Amino acid sequence: MPTNQKKYLDCVIVFLTLVFICVPLYAKEKNEDIEVITEGLAANKEEALLNAKRAAVEKGIGVVIITETEVKNFMVEKDKILTNTMGAVKKYKVIKEEETPDGLHAVKIKAVVSLASISKDLAALQILLETMDKPRVMILVDETIEDKRTKNCETSIADKLLEYKFDLVDPAMAAALLDKGDELIEKACLGDKTAAIKIGKANGAEVIIVGNVKTSEGSPMFGMKSGQADIAVQAIMCSNGKLMASKNIHGAFMHTSLKTAMSNAVKKASRNVVATQQKGKVVTSFFDQIIGAWQDMANNGIPVKLMVKNVSTFKAFKAVKKLVAEIDSNVVSVTQRGWSKPKLELDVQYKGTAEGLCEKIDGKVISGIGTLNIENFTAGSIQAVLK
What we know:
Elements: H1 3-26, E1 33-42, H2 45-61, E2 66-72, E3 75-82, E4 88-99, E5 105-114, H3 122-131, E6 136-145, E7 148-149, H4 152-163, E8 167-168, H5 171-180, H6 183-189, H7 193-202, E9 207-217, E10 225-237, E11 243-255, H8 258-274, E12 277-278, E13 281-282, H9 286-300, E14 302-309, H10 314-326, E15 331-340, E16 343-350, H11 354-361, E17 364-366, E18 370-377, E19 381-386
Parallel strand pairs: 6-8, 6-9, 14-19
Antiparallel strand pairs: 1-5, 2-3, 4-5, 6-7, 9-10, 10-11, 12-13, 14-16, 15-16, 17-18, 18-19
Helix pairs in contact: 3-9, 4-8, 6-7
């Protein structure tokens, strides 16, 4: 057999071997739990544990590897490895923890990986919330029926989040803001991200849920009044403006009293905001979207907005961007959002925590340019200065 053909055949054999090994793991029933032992290594304990959990997901479920090979003259030019993972750590136990000689933290865990939908698995959800540093959520929904403020939608969302032990900003605080009725509140409830983020940050929330409820009278039937309700809600990350979830729901109800018809229409629509099933059809609820966004960040990296001051030259801008992109293998991507000297703004996707990224950046020397120093940070943003 000619050498080129043999190389090609060898590639095919390797590919099929990987498929036969990996697919059975991937094809396990979704309601199974898998127990695995994994390790995580990082600059701090929290990030090491996060890496161990991520490894548990990948090891427990298996990774389907598909190699897309571009061939020119039967020679392999490059391979693109695509991986698909799903699932969540349902529970875990730290079985070993130590500091390595080079100052890193190593954590070994025994974990149970659940293949069930994370939104249906309370134990897995608690691990996810812990991984995301238990973000505080604020709910701000403008809802009135016949000029009287009501809380049907807010209550439905809050009840669902409290059921799964989310940390909520005091509802009384949100109610007091709504009673003010100022322009910023109105803009936020109508979906203005800038206004929503400003309110969320001012009240110590990492995520703010904003929305509005519109009621109207429909066509009467058989002497009954028709109440109509339209609800629009969004969940926004306060650190970077990321839209985590969005839902538009319509509800209708008939009653002899228009006020009662409208109230019940709002209640009906509100229940469907967080429902996972409507008229026998399984749907992705507003709640599921939020959980999905967090799960994606836990498995594939969190978005961090990095602001660097005193970047006064194009050379410095390129050097800082290169340093951040290459500082650690957990940096998934670095995107330039703007450079208006002396301020540089980067969006970083990072498999870890903002604090962990700070530890890697702080004090780094860029030859001929300066030293990067961290000034402050939150769960989703970092402020640094080049000196």
